Amino acid sequence: QVNLVESGGGSVQPGGSLRLSCTASGSIAGVVVMAWYRQAPGKEREFVARIHTVQLADYADSVKGRFTISKELGRNTMHLQMTDLKAEDTAIYYCNADLIPSGAVQRREYWGQGTQVTVSS
């Protein structure tokens, strides 16, 4: 059993900052990629940022220069530091992990339950 748990969401004014965290727990042989997606009301879920095991990261154009994704070495925990937040960043943010469960031979994809981020004055 593998679980992804997000934390750190909340409400902030435009220009503010928030830090999201996600921890993958359970029987895990290895994590390949961890990522953040978001879904705003009435819109489809969209990619935000991802980080690979070797610490390579990439971002959606809409968040480049404002968001920074990181992963703790040796741990299945990642963070998303969000700065200069805008109203359009308001969404539910979901943690995503592409990993190999213990005893498995193939990678599987897992999702967290999501954490709400609201940017409003």
Keywords:
mainly beta; four-stranded antiparallel sheet
Number of strands: 11
Sequence of secondary-structure elements? EEEEEEEEEEE
Low-confidence stretches: none
**Helical amount:** under 10%
Q: What's the total helix number?
A: 0
What form results from the Cα inertia axes?
elongated
Mean pLDDT: 95
Task: Report the radius of gyration as a whole number of Å.
Answer: 14 Å
- The assigned structural class equals mainly beta
Oligomeric composition of the shown chains: single chain
Proportion of beta-strand residues: over 45%
Largest sheet: 7 strands, mixed
Q: What is the straight-line distance between the termini?
A: 41 Å
Q: Could you walk me through the main structural features you see in this protein, from its secondary elements to its overall organization?
A:
This protein is an all-beta fold. Helices cover 0% and strands 59% of the residues. It is built from no helices and 11 strands. It has strands at residues 2-7, 10-12, 18-26, 28-39, 46-52, 57-59, 67-71, 77-82, 91-101, 108-111, 115-119. The strands form 2 sheets. Strands 2, 4, 5, 6, 9, 10 and 11 form a 7-stranded mixed sheet that branches. A 4-stranded antiparallel sheet has the order 1-3-8-7, with no helix packed on it. It starts with a strand and ends with a strand. The mean pLDDT is 95.
